[in-house]
Amino acid sequence: MRFGIIGTNWIADRFLAAAREVQGFELTAVYSRTEEKAKEFAAKYGAAHTFTDIGQMADSGLIDAVYIASPNFLHAEQSILCMDHGIHVLCEKPAASNAREFRSMAKAAKRNGVVFMEAMKSTLLPNFQAIQENLPKLGKVRRYLASYCQYSSRYDAYKRGELPNAFNPSLSNGSLMDLGVYGIYPLVVLFGKPDAIKASGVLLESGADGEGSILLQYPDMDAVIMYSKITDSSLPSEIQGENGCMAIHGISQPHKVEIRYRDGSTEDLTKPQSEHTMAYEIREFVGLIEAGLSESPTNTHERSLLTLEIMDEARRQIGLVFPADQQ
């Protein structure tokens, strides 16, 4: 399957390292804003074609599918352009700046009969399957707690007066979009739509959010999501039930899952999985195309939309506005 890639940052490198594990994947074309970067990246991975114009790449007939790893605010525009040229789209998370954009993207996928999937890797990993399969062992679930707090490598530059992409709200970036989404998406997959949302956060002078928390209410349980790009945390995430607690180590890519029962016993649920965790999302995406399916049964359009609706409401409550919201 002939792939194009939009974006040449570090996540694109990780994606292509993982793609080596996926049978039939072939990198054919690379887009970058500068010819120099495009050619350098293409040479590194053996891609035959480079572009500095996305429209030309989409119209070239050289690619069947594309992985979009550009800044968040470009996801909708670039995805729709590619889908309108009959190209299948795997779009890095978060799939869009807001729910309104995502609805337009989902419509474009349906209109053109192509696969469109958000590249949320965590919910496709074997260890997330272990979470789903063993959830009934907890009995009645009463709380979901997801924590992803990681001091950004770019925060020191921000404090020096620079404006790196990670803290630039004009790009639809910040801690909620970059890290908080990893706590929200699995919640949506496991428990669906909440009844109520209460959010708080810390806005930096740039207008981006440095950290935040969201409390979500369900009929008989609650959920707490904590995220930060300006502090670290070593807390595991948890699902607490009346029979015991499931500890999830690494909510963005679970690498260990265990249940600690009320009687003091423990059960290790961890499954073997590749260190190249993005391979699972690539394999899912390619499999959908080959099977002629319209969307992933796990990373569905409905779940991606609900995740963005939750983030939209959280941003509304803390006063976090992106330029993309006003278009």
UniProtKB/TrEMBL annotation:
SUPFAM superfamilies: Glyceraldehyde-3-phosphate dehydrogenase-like, C-terminal domain, NAD(P)-binding Rossmann-fold domains. Residues 1-118 form the Gfo/Idh/MocA-like oxidoreductase N-terminal domain. PANTHER family: PTHR43054, SCYLLO-INOSITOL 2-DEHYDROGENASE (NADP(+)) IOLU. It comes from Cohnella candidum. It holds the Pfam family GFO_IDH_MocA_C3. Gene3D superfamilies: Dihydrodipicolinate Reductase, domain 2 (3.30.360.10), NAD(P)-binding Rossmann-like Domain (3.40.50.720). This is Gfo/Idh/MocA family oxidoreductase. It comes from the Bacteria. Residues 137-245 form the GFO/IDH/MocA-like oxidoreductase domain. One of its GO terms (molecular function) is nucleotide binding.
